[in-house]
């Protein structure tokens, strides 16, 4: 898979505006983390979606927290010609399209566990919006012709859920492993410039996980 362009994305700003008052002065209330993401789809349009990102939380009373995230992903848009019923030349390898998406999300959740123990577990529910792009792609058909596909991508609305555990190896530093289930409401229109045929993809429900290194202050 061609994922090299993922690391060309530079994060230039990430901030959370949190106004809930602090109620426990003896425990840090803010947490930021750097995370690695993987989402697994059913191949329509992606099988695996890999990314990196930033995540932040503000802890409230009784373990509740609010937060936000900023992530950049890259993926292969699997066999886009097949969505239009185009049969590729069997002598040519399968041609995928390169896709990427930058997602901004907000969430609410709750953490459980003794503040003096190492492990704590948590859950969260969130809403995100993804800004997606898919590169044009072309290739030969089985009848000696060609196809030239373009992609018109709208916003990708994401319903997000997560459950995970954190290991606090100091009062400030922790590592989290988190399972994820998401539903993406997509608006991707595929057009073949040669034939004029079009089709749309409107949703995907990927599962996945992320691993993050966090600092609390």
Structure description:
The chain starts with 29 loop residues before the first strand and ends with a strand. It is an all-beta fold. The chain has no helices and eleven strands. It has one domain (29-216): Beta Barrel (Porin), CATH 2.40.160. An eight-stranded antiparallel barrel has the order 1-2-3-4-5-8-9-11. The relative contact order is 0.20. It is elongated, with a radius of gyration of 21 Å.
Task: Give a brief rundown of this model.
The protein is mostly beta strands and 217 residues long. The chain contains no helices and eleven strands.
Chart the SSEs and their pairings.
Blueprint (H helix, E strand, L loop, with lengths): L29 E11 L7 E12 L4 E14 L19 E16 L6 E16 L2 E4 L5 E8 L1 E14 L4 E20 L5 E7 L2 E10 L1
Antiparallel strand pairs: 1-2, 1-11, 2-3, 3-4, 4-5, 5-8, 6-7, 7-9, 8-9, 9-10, 9-11
Helical fraction equals: under 10%
Instruction: Give the termini distance in whole angstroms.
Output: 38 Å
> By helix and strand content, what is the structural category?
mainly beta
**Which spans of ≥5 residues are poorly predicted at pLDDT below 50?**
1-25
Strand content: over 45%
Counting DSSP E segments of at least 2 residues, the number of strands comes to: 11
The string of secondary-structure elements, in order, is EEEEEEEEEEE
Number of helices: 0
Rounded Rg: 21 Å
**What's the CATH first level?**
Mainly Beta
CATH architecture: Beta Barrel
Provide the residue-averaged pLDDT.
Answer: 87
CATH topology title: Porin
Shape: elongated
Largest sheet: 8 strands, antiparallel, barrel
């Amino acid at each position: 898979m061609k994922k090299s362009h993922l690391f060309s994305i530079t994060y230039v700003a990430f901030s959370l505006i949190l106004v809930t008052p602090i109620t426990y002065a003896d425990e840090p209330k803010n947490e930021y983390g750097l995370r690695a993401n993987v989402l697994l789809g059913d191949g329509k349009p992606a099988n695996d979606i890999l990314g990196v990102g930033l995540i932040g939380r503000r802890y409230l009373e009784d373990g509740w927290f609010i937060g936000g995230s900023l992530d950049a992903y890259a993926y292969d848009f699997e066999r886009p010609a097949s969505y239009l019923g185009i049969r590729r030349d069997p002598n040519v390898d399968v041609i995928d399209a390169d896709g990427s998406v930058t997602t901004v999300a907000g969430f609410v959740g709750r953490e459980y566990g003794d503040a003096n123990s190492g492990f704590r577990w948590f859950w969260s529910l969130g809403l995100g919006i993804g800004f997606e792009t898919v590169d044009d792609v072309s290739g030969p058909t089985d009848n000696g012709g060609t196809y030239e596909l373009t992609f018109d991508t709208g916003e990708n609305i994401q319903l997000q859920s997560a459950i995970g555990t954190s290991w606090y190896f100091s009062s400030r530093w922790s590592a989290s492993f988190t399972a994820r289930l998401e539903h993406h409401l997509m608006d991707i229109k595929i057009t073949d410039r040669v034939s004029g045929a079009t089709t749309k993809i409107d949703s995907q429900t990927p599962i996945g996980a992320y691993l993050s290194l966090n600092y609390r202050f």
